[in-house]
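Researcher: Let's run the pair from yesterday's discussion. Sequence first, then tokens, for each.
Model: Starting with the first of the pair.
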Amino acid sequence: MTTLDLPSNRAMPSTRGMNFFTADPNLERALGAYAEPANVERALPLLEEVGRCAGDELDELAAVADAHPPVLRTHDRLGRRVDEIVYHPAFVEMQRLGFSRFGFAAMSHRAGVLGWPGRVPHVVKFALSYVFVQSEFGLFCPISMTDSAARVLRMFGSAELQERYVPRLTSTDFGELMQSAQLLTERTGGSDVGASECVARLVDGEWRIWGEKWFCSNAGADVHLALARPEGAPAGTKGLGMFLVPKVLEGGERNRYVIRRLKEKLGSRSMPTGEYEFEGAVGYVVGAIDRGFGQMAEMINVSRLSNGMRAAALMRRALLEAVVHARGRAAFGRALFELPLVREQLFEMVLDSEAALAIVLFAAQALDRADGGSEHDELVVRIVTPLIKYANCRRARWTTGMAMNIRGGNGYIEEWVNARLLRDAHLGSIWEGAENVVALDVARAAMRNGAHEALFGELEERLGAVTTEVGRGEGAATRDALGGVRRRFEALLGASEDEREAKMAAMCDRLAAAVCSVLLTVEGDREARMGQGYGKLLVAREYRRRYLERADPLDGDSSVLRWLGELVDGKPVPASALV
């Protein structure tokens, strides 16, 4: 039998052409729990526009760009060093979509992007980004670094640097746009940034930089925020300064560095990552020269939050792919979606996806408030950002893997999106600090700043606002579990350094589950009050049992699987489902 002769029930269902926003009823409801009502209404048509693009035009471009990664052109035909990155047209078009059409790197800095009055709130920006990233993960690294570079310059840069670079870093005119990269990692240190060997020297009144950087994502960028140690400065992170290193100097000549090669990567193939070698490159000091690492931490934290959002987006796309496939395929005389074990796997993917989005929007809301001057929310952001980076990125690996498994052999074939989702999910756990690094950063935020007290206080306050009868019952169970997590977290902070470090990853698993359990309960209570049913409270209960209380899976109640279709489609679930 040839391919053309295959019967219709052997078709291969695809998500291509779907609107990724309208296909996700959970997003609008979740956004309503964290954004002002007027902002939600203003965001809806924009979300629909991004969703339409992500499910069609962007999805097609992303597949092409992944198959045709950029290449490094080191010299021109006359033998002159140029270090030019040559992109496939599909990636260039994706850049136009991300930077210009939707203005993701500009919307936190400029008024009027996408017609928004004033600057777009972080919580709305992350919701829009969440939809976009479901089709293209790699491009959001350049977008995030350009966005955060403008933020760092506005916070710490001199008036001259701000005037020269911020307007172009935040431009939606693709011809005027400057993109940014970040240069931290060196072979000598890896995650130990304090071991960096790049040196900065004053030469004829300007700073020059020598040394190498082992990883530069968005290689070939117009500007780079780089750490280097001024000659004579002390060892460790305290001796590092931050420098803005432009690609082209004011006179039009190339700056003094080379891109040695581009990395062959498992994931994010559409976006170039390269090795840099500085040969006396001109750099402009950003902020206090002895505060470089602390200032770079602001850029890292925004990038980490973006990473957590991207992991949530990968989980959502994985769930969508699995649901569409399971509903469109049959085995043993039944649709895959009706098979009990498949339903159990999809149900767990729903829990992962909705929890991941909840904690991202919660952090984005806190970032909006912190930028507005709230010291309380600044502490919440400080601890929840590495926690999101740890937990969402870790869980995305399982979720994307399960979606591949549900699709079967086609899921392993590069013509389908699953392989790319899985590859990108593994990168998310490494970018901006591997799991061990960010888990220990959670502990540091608690020990240095008492940030955990702000976080637990915030969660308790939110649980106290739950009002529905079913919500109060779930809230009481969640409050008890939250109290247990707090006691164990604080006990671990007081343990020996070796014990604390050895157990901190497991503690972060439990802490993230506690945060998400609270958020899902509060979201569920809100939906119940609004007459939207009890589906989110059902999700909250099962998430608490499975992830926070670690109930034995063999003791679980499989009757909850009957509500899978309602949860996926956003249809009401009755209160009786929780009895």
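Model: Moving on to the second of the pair.
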Amino acid sequence: MTTTNTTTTSTASTSTAGTSAAPTAGALTKFADPLPIPPRLRPDPGDPLPHLTIRTEAAEIQLHSELPPTPLWTYQGCFPGPVFDVRRDQRIRVTWSNHTTTPYPALVAHLADAPGNPSLAMNDPGIGAATPVPGTDAIPAWFVTHLHGAVTGGGNDGWTENALLYGDAQLSEYPNRQPAMTLWYHDHAMDITRLNVYSGLVGMYLLRDEEEDRLHLPHGDREIPLIICDRNLATDAEGRPTGQLLHKTTGTLPFVGPYTLVNGRIWPHLEVRPGWYRFRLLNASNSRSYRLHLLDAAGDRVSGAAWQIGTDSGLLGAPIPLAAEGLVLAPAERADLLVDFGAFPGTELRLVNSAQAPFRGDPLPPGVRPGDPLPAARLPEPDVMLFRVAAEPADDGFRLPAVLSPGFTRLTHEALPPDHEHRMLALAADPDGTLGLWELAEVPPAQGPTAPGQVLDGIVQVRAADGTVTTYQRLARHFDDTLNWRARMDGWEQWRILNLSGILHPIHIHLIRFQLLGIDGYATGSFDPAHGGTATGAPVGYLGALPIDATQQGWKDVVRVPPGAMVSIAGRFGGAAGRYMYHCHILEHEDAGMMRPFSVMPGPVLALDPGMGGGGMGMG
């Protein structure tokens, strides 16, 4: 194994505007610190089965040069952890070894719902009117690592309840029989994923192949991971940040924080040369979505300089220019970007976020420009980072290729094998306000409501585009309900996901990559969450097809499901078997119950399963 470390994150950075005095709340100097570059782990290409050991351990790291060190739980003492750099078909073994002995490092607090919308105070630095959550300081270092996007056996995937305490280790094997793509790894422990990830347990994993090699993309110091997340900090009696992480939420909203970090540093800067760079972007936030823009010194959008070449799970067929509306990334989504700084020698460009929080990547309201604060929408600070372009000639010889992946094709339902399986899923609120994943099965209309105004718990009727009404019965909604969905290994499936909850959810399916076939709008106001269904004669109704953004037309493992919409996705459950999970990647939602298991089994075995077909809706 070769380890390359350009700039570690376990030591304080050099500041261009640092001060020895602790700042007042919200007064950290922007763009004071250079962007840290996580160390690289490159398995030895001559080793037939490299074996790497990654330790989880406590560390104290400065998130900004004007802050005291912040206690964290980390991989290898770094936040974020080291970047794996692996070739396609290079099978590796990783021992995730728990060496963490310190108490949970973040302060966990709750801001109760009350008149006056206290949820806006979620973005305020410091605990404010929030109350520490009893018992969270006793959370043990209980970890299990999931390689997000990996095609690997169920025993290697990081099953949520198989977390380990200090002194134990998780052995996982990753075949890497996948195209070039940006994956990432993070903790996935049952009930506390939001807290373990928040404490620092995230890292990037890059896969490369010959198709990518042929493009001669920017590499070396011109290929840079950008791992973006938000955090909050506790404050002392004078309102100065202490450096301790603060996970402050309300009774109804997941975490969003006032400080934006890139590679573990708050509002950093990066010195670049004129010419092309490749940025591997990851939204590692618990719940915040981003809508990213490049702005010049005058605050105007930069056009023609940034191009997206890949999505979560691989290269696109052709580059996509960064739209004026910006690049949207929900939690866990990735984007592979090329940026040409050649036209900007001696200038500075800002990367800013305009997404209203939480859960949303909506375009800005009229009259608001990217870079403007939106405190009422929980976006008090739009800045993400700064690029400082050197004043020197620009010609690195790279030219943007017209074709990226010659074999890339858009999936359609008609092109799927005739024996593909159909699944129906609803995202819905339960009467107590908790959110669930409702696995649905089609049933005869006679099982639906018949009396005037009647609502039957777990019965949802949907009117399609052609006017036909289908009755569905809920089979499961929470993690511990019966396992219903058994996929045939190497079989194709189409999942339709109907959002009845009124909140955007990014849904991640383990093991597979998929494509978005379509998005349709639905009138969902007839769904009655208090009674768990739709009333007689009031089905959820089709409104019309919605456009699919170009950045969502590649291979994905996270799909954004807007409220009042049904998305259709298709993918192949190939390459491995075992028990896996799918879930909302708003981590507070995942921990609160928006996660369900599924299993993948070889076809001949599945044919002998007495429960075969449970939850499916047939082939074709």
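Researcher: Give me one sentence on the second I can quote.
Model: The longest helix spans residues 193-198.
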